[in-house]
Specification:
The protein contains 16 helices and 5 strands. By secondary structure, it is mainly alpha-helical. The protein has one domain: Growth Hormone, Chain: A. The chain starts with 5 loop residues before the first helix and ends with a strand.
Length: 444
């Protein structure tokens, strides 16, 4: 197949910016917007936890539906582009409205409003992102080029992280309207270059390929053994990463007794480490394989994240140590292995899609991203619920002991991710892809 130009790769990769930015902002700030004792409580902690979990749960249902719909779509614009083209604007509008509740006091109006907005947010996120990710395996079948594309995508993921790190400053100076508006505009500018500059591969669908019913497609996907190891591993990684991102604003305000501006100070080293080390993970992936790079990522995260909990003992061990500085250093160290998570899972899943073609004879890219979302978004929803249980007392006030416990819970989840991925069976040999002795994808 014809290779993409640098400009086309750039246009596709830009979508990673909005994909990452919106996820990070929702993970770290949505609780802060609606449940922020002692400043303001617009929705109770338990109610907000249930609402967010229900959004993730319903999202998990729509993901495989959209994925299978995209795989089976036949249009003159392709299978993926129509979803991105028609879904991006509604997605941006809903994201903006999510931060503008009808009342600044607690009441049923806010509960109903945030429930509806959360549901719509996840639906439109799925409509745009699942087909967008489904493009990746058909952009190129060359294993090294896939890693390079996901690395370029990771650059834009990092740009999204830069904006995310600055959101505390945006909120403090412009309020919630600017907060939501900035991310909404960036989302539009990030996704639409794919619509205008990336052409879908006409060879991705075989002319005689029949459409696969939803339930049959899900069954085929779930029976893919390498996929199940990957999706369970990445789900536990997401659980750990999400509760850590949720932790930081509360850690800053309630544990360190700093303003929201200090969120950017703590997340800055995390960002720099990501920016530097995903090039390192790119090199490891190309030279030693994605399997080793993934294991370094998961195990490194498990070993480093408990250091934040040691802040509880730092004043006794190192008198005079500034806890803001200590927290920033720990997050910088954690950013090293997390850098791999910006690029590795999508590249690994593309290999799994190639394996699927060898056993099914079909190209079914988007359903894999959709079914993966069933696991990942459900467990992210559980992470929201778990954070609420650990970080809050029964009186809806913040528990300092609970905040200290969160990194230890994250460490366990990171370690489970590492253990599960040990069984992942696909390997790279001389640029080709194998499961055992079976050739999956010859380097092209």
């Amino acid at each position: 197949m014809k290779k993409l130009s640098f400009g086309q790769k750039m246009a596709y990769s830009m979508g990673g910016m909005a994909m990452n930015l919106t996820n990070l902002v929702i993970a770290q700030w949505i609780f802060k917007r609606y449940t922020d004792p002692p400043n303001v409580m617009l929705v109770g902690v338990l109610a907000m936890s249930v609402i967010f979990f229900s959004g993730r749960a319903s999202d998990a249902i729509t993901d495989p539906i959209i994925g299978n719909w995209s795989d089976n779509l036949r249009s003159r614009w392709g299978r993926r582009i129509p979803f991105i083209a028609w879904g991006t604007i509604p997605f941006a509008i809903v994201f903006f409205l999510l931060w503008t509740p009808p009342s600044e006091t607690m009441g049923w109006a806010n509960i109903i409003y945030v429930f509806v907005m959360i549901q719509l947010y996840f639906i439109f996120y799925t409509i745009v992102v699942t087909p967008y990710l489904g493009l990746l395996p058909e952009i190129t079948s060359d294993l090294d080029e896939r890693v390079n594309i996901t690395t370029m995508q990771a650059v834009f993921v990092m740009l999204g992280t830069i904006v995310f790190v600055l959101m505390g400053v945006v909120k403090e100076n412009g309020g919630w309207l600017w907060f939501g508006g900035v991310v909404a505009v960036i989302s539009i500018l990030s996704f639409y270059p794919t619509v205008f500059f990336v052409k879908e591969n006409p060879d991705a669908i075989k002319k005689d390929q029949e459409k696969t019913p939803l339930l049959e497609s899900i069954r085929m996907t779930m029976s893919n053994r390498p996929f199940m190891y990957l999706v369970i591993s990445t789900s536990f990684y997401w659980f750990a990463l999400n509760i850590m991102l949720m932790l930081i604003p509360f850690w800053v305000q309630n544990y360190l007794q700093k303003t929201e501006r200090a969120v950017s100070i703590i997340m800055g080293p995390f960002l720099v480490a990501n920016l530097v080390f995903f090039f390192v993970f790119n090199w490891i992936s190309r030279k030693r394989g994605k399997y080793l790079a993934y294991q370094i990522m998961a195990l490194g995260s498990a070993l480093l994240v408990p250091l934040l909990s040691l802040a509880w003992f730092v004043p006794k061990m190192i008198p005079g140590m500034d806890l803001l500085l200590y927290s920033s250093v720990v997050m910088g160290l954690l950013g090293i292995p997390v850098a791999g998570f910006s690029m590795l899972p999508f590249a690994v899943l593309s290999d799994v899609v190639d394996y699927d073609e060898t056993i099914s004879g079909k190209r079914r890219e988007a359903i894999y991203f959709g079914v993966q979302a069933i696991f990942q978004k459900t467990i992210i929803g559980l992470s929201i619920f778990a954070f609420g249980l650990v970080a809050y007392t029964t009186g809806d006030s913040i528990s300092i002991a609970g905040l200290v416990l969160v990194p230890l819970i994250a460490s366990v989840a990171f370690f489970v991710s590492f253990i599960v991925f040990i069984r992942y069976p696909i390997r790279e040999k001389d640029g080709d892809l194998y499961l055992g002795e079976k050739l999956i994808n010859r380097k092209k």
